[in-house]
Amino acid sequence: MNPTHIHTWDFVDSPLVNGRFLGGDGLRNPGAWVSWLAPTPFYSELFVNVQNSGGGTAASFRGGGHHHGEEEAEELPFAYRHADNDRGVRNFTDLLIAPRYVAAFELTDAQTLLFGASAAFGPNNVGGEDAGGTRTQLYGVDLTWKWKPANQSGGFPFVSWQTEAMWRRTEVGAFDWDEDGDGLLSDGEVEDLDTGAPATLDAETLNDFGFYTQVVYGFRKGWTAGLRYDWLDRDSGRYEARNLALAGEALGRDPLRNSRWRLSPALTWYPSEFSKLRLQYNLDDRRDIGTDHSVWLQFEFILGAHAAHKF
After folding, report:
1. Rounded distance, CA 50 to CA 122, Å?
2. pLDDT at residue 130 above 70?
3. Residue 67 — φ and ψ, nearest 5°?
4. Closest-CA residue to 62 (of 42, 37, 90)
5. Does 90 map to a domain?
6. Mean pLDDT along residues 113-126
7. What is the pTM of this model?
8. What is the mean pLDDT of residues 94-105?
9. Does the pLDDT at position 307 exceed 80?
Protein backbone atom coordinates (compact mmCIF):
# COMPACT_ATOMS: atom_id res chain seq x y z
CA MET A 1 0.00 0.00 0.00
CA ASN A 2 2.79 2.43 0.90
CA PRO A 3 4.05 3.34 -2.62
CA THR A 4 0.58 3.75 -4.18
CA HIS A 5 -0.74 7.19 -5.04
CA ILE A 6 -3.68 8.48 -3.00
CA HIS A 7 -5.94 8.75 -6.04
CA THR A 8 -5.59 4.99 -6.65
CA TRP A 9 -6.83 4.04 -3.18
CA ASP A 10 -10.04 2.04 -2.93
CA PHE A 11 -11.03 3.84 0.29
CA VAL A 12 -10.99 7.44 1.53
CA ASP A 13 -8.32 6.83 4.17
CA SER A 14 -5.24 4.64 4.50
CA PRO A 15 -5.29 1.45 6.60
CA LEU A 16 -4.69 1.95 10.32
CA VAL A 17 -1.46 -0.05 10.35
CA ASN A 18 0.00 2.13 7.60
CA GLY A 19 -0.92 5.32 9.41
CA ARG A 20 0.53 4.18 12.73
CA PHE A 21 3.75 2.62 11.43
CA LEU A 22 4.49 4.74 8.35
CA GLY A 23 2.76 8.05 9.12
CA GLY A 24 -0.07 9.86 7.39
CA ASP A 25 2.03 10.58 4.29
CA GLY A 26 3.71 7.17 4.14
CA LEU A 27 7.38 6.22 4.17
CA ARG A 28 8.84 8.11 1.19
CA ASN A 29 12.06 9.95 1.99
CA PRO A 30 14.77 11.09 -0.44
CA GLY A 31 17.06 8.27 -1.46
CA ALA A 32 17.84 5.77 -4.19
CA TRP A 33 16.84 2.24 -5.10
CA VAL A 34 18.03 -0.64 -7.24
CA SER A 35 16.06 -3.66 -8.44
CA TRP A 36 16.78 -7.05 -9.97
CA LEU A 37 14.30 -8.87 -12.19
CA ALA A 38 14.98 -12.55 -11.56
CA PRO A 39 15.10 -14.92 -14.58
CA THR A 40 12.18 -17.06 -13.42
CA PRO A 41 9.17 -18.37 -15.37
CA PHE A 42 6.97 -16.11 -13.25
CA TYR A 43 7.38 -12.42 -12.38
CA SER A 44 9.92 -12.17 -9.56
CA GLU A 45 11.69 -8.93 -8.57
CA LEU A 46 13.88 -7.83 -5.66
CA PHE A 47 14.15 -4.15 -4.64
CA VAL A 48 16.52 -2.46 -2.21
CA ASN A 49 15.77 1.13 -1.21
CA VAL A 50 18.13 3.42 0.72
CA GLN A 51 16.67 6.59 2.28
CA ASN A 52 17.35 9.36 4.75
CA SER A 53 15.88 8.12 8.04
CA GLY A 54 14.89 11.63 9.22
CA GLY A 55 12.15 14.07 8.24
CA GLY A 56 8.38 14.15 8.32
CA THR A 57 7.90 11.06 6.13
CA ALA A 58 9.89 8.62 8.30
CA ALA A 59 7.49 8.34 11.24
CA SER A 60 8.80 5.18 12.92
CA PHE A 61 12.42 6.24 12.50
CA ARG A 62 13.94 9.71 12.96
CA GLY A 63 10.77 11.44 11.78
CA GLY A 64 10.06 13.13 15.12
CA GLY A 65 6.97 15.26 15.77
CA HIS A 66 4.31 12.71 16.73
CA HIS A 67 4.86 9.82 19.10
CA HIS A 68 5.25 6.72 16.92
CA GLY A 69 3.90 8.55 13.90
CA GLU A 70 0.22 8.82 14.82
CA GLU A 71 -1.70 12.03 14.21
CA GLU A 72 -4.05 11.97 17.20
CA ALA A 73 -1.92 13.94 19.64
CA GLU A 74 1.33 15.81 19.89
CA GLU A 75 4.29 14.21 21.62
CA LEU A 76 3.02 12.77 24.89
CA PRO A 77 4.61 14.09 28.11
CA PHE A 78 4.61 10.64 29.73
CA ALA A 79 6.12 8.67 26.87
CA TYR A 80 9.80 8.41 26.19
CA ARG A 81 10.72 11.80 24.84
CA HIS A 82 12.00 12.39 21.35
CA ALA A 83 15.64 13.40 21.20
CA ASP A 84 16.83 16.11 18.82
CA ASN A 85 18.03 13.49 16.39
CA ASP A 86 17.10 14.96 13.00
CA ARG A 87 20.74 15.75 12.27
CA GLY A 88 20.81 14.78 8.62
CA VAL A 89 22.91 11.89 7.37
CA ARG A 90 26.36 11.80 8.93
CA ASN A 91 27.28 8.18 8.28
CA PHE A 92 25.88 4.89 7.00
CA THR A 93 24.07 4.11 10.27
CA ASP A 94 21.85 7.18 9.75
CA LEU A 95 20.36 5.62 6.60
CA LEU A 96 17.12 3.69 6.34
CA ILE A 97 17.36 0.44 4.37
CA ALA A 98 14.13 -0.99 2.91
CA PRO A 99 14.26 -4.24 0.91
CA ARG A 100 11.21 -5.75 -0.84
CA TYR A 101 10.56 -8.93 -2.82
CA VAL A 102 7.55 -9.41 -5.12
CA ALA A 103 6.36 -12.49 -7.01
CA ALA A 104 3.27 -12.75 -9.26
CA PHE A 105 1.56 -15.79 -10.75
CA GLU A 106 -1.07 -16.13 -13.48
CA LEU A 107 -3.36 -18.72 -11.90
CA THR A 108 -5.74 -18.75 -14.89
CA ASP A 109 -6.49 -16.45 -17.80
CA ALA A 110 -8.78 -14.51 -15.44
CA GLN A 111 -6.93 -14.73 -12.09
CA THR A 112 -3.64 -13.27 -10.87
CA LEU A 113 -1.97 -13.73 -7.48
CA LEU A 114 0.74 -11.39 -6.16
CA PHE A 115 2.84 -12.02 -3.05
CA GLY A 116 5.18 -9.49 -1.44
CA ALA A 117 7.51 -9.30 1.56
CA SER A 118 8.99 -6.03 2.80
CA ALA A 119 11.16 -4.70 5.59
CA ALA A 120 12.70 -1.42 6.78
CA PHE A 121 15.64 -0.92 9.15
CA GLY A 122 16.97 2.34 10.56
CA PRO A 123 17.64 4.51 13.62
CA ASN A 124 14.85 6.15 15.60
CA ASN A 125 14.70 9.23 17.83
CA VAL A 126 12.82 7.71 20.78
CA GLY A 127 14.53 7.25 24.10
CA GLY A 128 16.14 10.18 25.85
CA GLU A 129 19.87 9.90 26.40
CA ASP A 130 20.21 6.72 24.37
CA ALA A 131 18.38 7.98 21.28
CA GLY A 132 20.67 7.77 18.30
CA GLY A 133 21.79 4.28 19.22
CA THR A 134 18.23 2.96 19.26
CA ARG A 135 16.79 1.45 16.10
CA THR A 136 13.47 0.38 14.55
CA GLN A 137 12.75 -2.71 12.48
CA LEU A 138 9.63 -3.06 10.31
CA TYR A 139 8.51 -6.30 8.66
CA GLY A 140 5.56 -6.77 6.32
CA VAL A 141 3.92 -9.38 4.10
CA ASP A 142 1.13 -8.78 1.59
CA LEU A 143 -1.07 -10.80 -0.72
CA THR A 144 -3.26 -9.61 -3.60
CA TRP A 145 -5.66 -11.68 -5.70
CA LYS A 146 -7.48 -10.26 -8.74
CA TRP A 147 -10.16 -11.72 -10.95
CA LYS A 148 -11.10 -10.16 -14.27
CA PRO A 149 -13.00 -12.25 -16.86
CA ALA A 150 -12.02 -12.43 -20.51
CA ASN A 151 -15.24 -10.70 -21.56
CA GLN A 152 -14.61 -7.64 -19.33
CA SER A 153 -15.18 -4.18 -20.79
CA GLY A 154 -13.18 -1.16 -19.66
CA GLY A 155 -11.82 -3.16 -16.71
CA PHE A 156 -15.26 -4.22 -15.40
CA PRO A 157 -16.41 -6.46 -13.83
CA PHE A 158 -13.60 -7.46 -11.46
CA VAL A 159 -12.95 -8.64 -7.90
CA SER A 160 -9.82 -7.70 -5.94
CA TRP A 161 -8.79 -9.00 -2.52
CA GLN A 162 -5.80 -7.43 -0.79
CA THR A 163 -4.37 -8.01 2.67
CA GLU A 164 -1.22 -6.81 4.40
CA ALA A 165 0.27 -7.49 7.85
CA MET A 166 3.09 -5.60 9.59
CA TRP A 167 5.21 -5.95 12.72
CA ARG A 168 7.23 -3.09 14.22
CA ARG A 169 10.05 -3.64 16.71
CA THR A 170 11.16 -0.38 18.35
CA GLU A 171 14.19 -0.07 20.61
CA VAL A 172 13.64 2.61 23.26
CA GLY A 173 16.53 4.07 25.22
CA ALA A 174 16.79 4.69 28.95
CA PHE A 175 15.48 7.96 30.37
CA ASP A 176 15.93 9.83 33.64
CA TRP A 177 13.31 12.50 34.45
CA ASP A 178 15.58 14.14 37.06
CA GLU A 179 16.67 16.76 34.54
CA ASP A 180 18.25 19.16 37.05
CA GLY A 181 19.96 16.36 38.98
CA ASP A 182 18.72 17.38 42.44
CA GLY A 183 16.75 14.19 43.05
CA LEU A 184 13.57 16.18 43.72
CA LEU A 185 10.37 16.14 41.69
CA SER A 186 9.83 19.26 39.58
CA ASP A 187 7.00 20.45 37.35
CA GLY A 188 6.67 18.44 34.17
CA GLU A 189 8.65 15.49 35.54
CA VAL A 190 7.23 11.98 35.85
CA GLU A 191 7.03 10.64 39.42
CA ASP A 192 7.87 7.16 40.62
CA LEU A 193 4.94 6.56 42.99
CA ASP A 194 6.93 3.98 44.95
CA THR A 195 9.70 6.43 45.91
CA GLY A 196 8.26 9.89 45.23
CA ALA A 197 11.38 10.72 43.23
CA PRO A 198 11.66 11.53 39.54
CA ALA A 199 11.17 8.35 37.54
CA THR A 200 13.93 6.54 35.72
CA LEU A 201 13.16 4.15 32.90
CA ASP A 202 15.36 1.37 31.59
CA ALA A 203 15.88 0.68 27.92
CA GLU A 204 13.31 -1.68 26.43
CA THR A 205 11.97 -3.01 23.14
CA LEU A 206 8.37 -2.32 22.08
CA ASN A 207 6.45 -4.58 19.70
CA ASP A 208 3.47 -3.39 17.67
CA PHE A 209 1.58 -5.33 15.02
CA GLY A 210 -1.45 -4.98 12.80
CA PHE A 211 -3.09 -5.89 9.53
CA TYR A 212 -5.85 -4.94 7.12
CA THR A 213 -7.82 -6.98 4.63
CA GLN A 214 -10.09 -5.55 1.94
CA VAL A 215 -12.31 -6.75 -0.89
CA VAL A 216 -13.39 -4.55 -3.81
CA TYR A 217 -16.01 -5.62 -6.35
CA GLY A 218 -16.38 -3.75 -9.63
CA PHE A 219 -19.94 -4.86 -10.26
CA ARG A 220 -20.62 -2.71 -13.33
CA LYS A 221 -18.67 -0.27 -15.44
CA GLY A 222 -17.74 2.76 -13.34
CA TRP A 223 -19.07 1.35 -10.03
CA THR A 224 -17.25 -0.45 -7.21
CA ALA A 225 -18.24 -1.63 -3.74
CA GLY A 226 -15.60 -2.29 -1.11
CA LEU A 227 -15.25 -3.54 2.45
CA ARG A 228 -12.12 -3.22 4.61
CA TYR A 229 -11.28 -4.46 8.12
CA ASP A 230 -8.33 -2.99 10.10
CA TRP A 231 -6.81 -4.28 13.34
CA LEU A 232 -3.96 -3.07 15.59
CA ASP A 233 -2.45 -4.33 18.84
CA ARG A 234 0.82 -4.32 20.78
CA ASP A 235 2.61 -5.53 23.87
CA SER A 236 2.70 -3.23 26.91
CA GLY A 237 5.76 -1.12 27.61
CA ARG A 238 7.28 -0.64 31.04
CA TYR A 239 6.88 3.13 30.57
CA GLU A 240 3.12 2.53 30.83
CA ALA A 241 3.45 1.15 34.37
CA ARG A 242 0.84 2.45 36.80
CA ASN A 243 3.44 3.20 39.46
CA LEU A 244 4.46 6.18 37.32
CA ALA A 245 2.47 9.41 37.42
CA LEU A 246 2.39 12.90 35.95
CA ALA A 247 0.56 15.66 37.83
CA GLY A 248 -0.72 13.08 40.31
CA GLU A 249 -2.36 10.84 37.72
CA ALA A 250 -1.13 7.33 36.96
CA LEU A 251 0.09 7.06 33.38
CA GLY A 252 -1.50 3.79 32.30
CA ARG A 253 -1.73 2.68 28.68
CA ASP A 254 -0.31 4.81 25.89
CA PRO A 255 -3.33 5.79 23.71
CA LEU A 256 -1.09 6.16 20.65
CA ARG A 257 -0.17 2.47 20.84
CA ASN A 258 -3.50 1.12 22.08
CA SER A 259 -5.36 -1.72 20.41
CA ARG A 260 -7.85 -0.61 17.77
CA TRP A 261 -10.04 -1.97 14.99
CA ARG A 262 -12.10 -0.41 12.20
CA LEU A 263 -14.68 -1.61 9.68
CA SER A 264 -15.19 0.43 6.50
CA PRO A 265 -17.70 -0.22 3.68
CA ALA A 266 -17.42 2.09 0.65
CA LEU A 267 -19.29 2.73 -2.60
CA THR A 268 -17.47 4.49 -5.47
CA TRP A 269 -18.71 5.90 -8.78
CA TYR A 270 -16.31 6.88 -11.57
CA PRO A 271 -18.12 9.35 -13.86
CA SER A 272 -15.00 9.35 -16.04
CA GLU A 273 -11.46 7.98 -16.07
CA PHE A 274 -10.31 11.19 -14.38
CA SER A 275 -12.86 11.62 -11.57
CA LYS A 276 -14.62 9.73 -8.82
CA LEU A 277 -17.28 10.19 -6.15
CA ARG A 278 -17.06 8.01 -3.03
CA LEU A 279 -19.29 7.41 0.01
CA GLN A 280 -17.71 5.61 2.98
CA TYR A 281 -18.72 4.73 6.53
CA ASN A 282 -16.21 3.98 9.33
CA LEU A 283 -16.99 2.07 12.52
CA ASP A 284 -13.89 2.73 14.62
CA ASP A 285 -13.26 1.13 18.02
CA ARG A 286 -10.32 2.38 20.15
CA ARG A 287 -9.44 0.90 23.53
CA ASP A 288 -9.99 3.32 26.46
CA ILE A 289 -11.53 5.89 24.09
CA GLY A 290 -14.64 4.20 22.72
CA THR A 291 -16.44 3.76 19.43
CA ASP A 292 -16.66 6.38 16.69
CA HIS A 293 -19.07 6.46 13.75
CA SER A 294 -18.20 8.62 10.75
CA VAL A 295 -19.47 9.10 7.21
CA TRP A 296 -17.19 10.40 4.45
CA LEU A 297 -18.05 11.85 1.07
CA GLN A 298 -15.09 12.22 -1.29
CA PHE A 299 -14.90 13.88 -4.69
CA GLU A 300 -11.71 13.72 -6.70
CA PHE A 301 -10.64 14.79 -10.15
CA ILE A 302 -7.33 14.66 -12.01
CA LEU A 303 -5.91 17.19 -14.47
CA GLY A 304 -3.04 16.58 -16.88
CA ALA A 305 -1.16 13.55 -18.14
CA HIS A 306 -0.32 10.80 -15.69
CA ALA A 307 1.88 7.73 -16.00
CA ALA A 308 0.39 4.25 -15.81
CA HIS A 309 0.17 2.64 -12.37
CA LYS A 310 1.62 -0.67 -11.29
CA PHE A 311 -0.49 -3.79 -10.88
Report:
1. 10
2. no
3. -65, 115
4. 90
5. yes
6. 93
7. 0.89
8. 96
9. no
Per-residue pLDDT at 241 exceeds 90: no
Distance from C-alpha of 204 to C-alpha of 171, rounded to nearest angstrom: 6
Quick one: which of 250, 239, 296, 229 has its CA closest to 68? Answer: 239
Which one, of 26, 20, 35, 31, lies nearest residue 1 by Cα? 26
Which domain range does residue 271 map to? 6-301
Closest CA to 8 of 276, 208, 213: 276
65-97 pLDDT, tens digit per residue, is: 444 334 433 334 334 555 555 566 788 888 999
Number of C-alpha atoms within 13 angstroms, CB side, residue 296? 17
Is 307 domain-assigned?
no
Is 308 among the domain residues?
no
Instruction: Indicate the number of domains in the chain.
Output: 1
Which DSSP string corresponds to 47-105?
EEEEEESBSTT-TTTB--SSGGG-SSSS--TTSPPBPS------SGGGEEEEEEEEEEE
CB 79 within 8 A of CB 72: no
- pLDDT of res. 84: 52
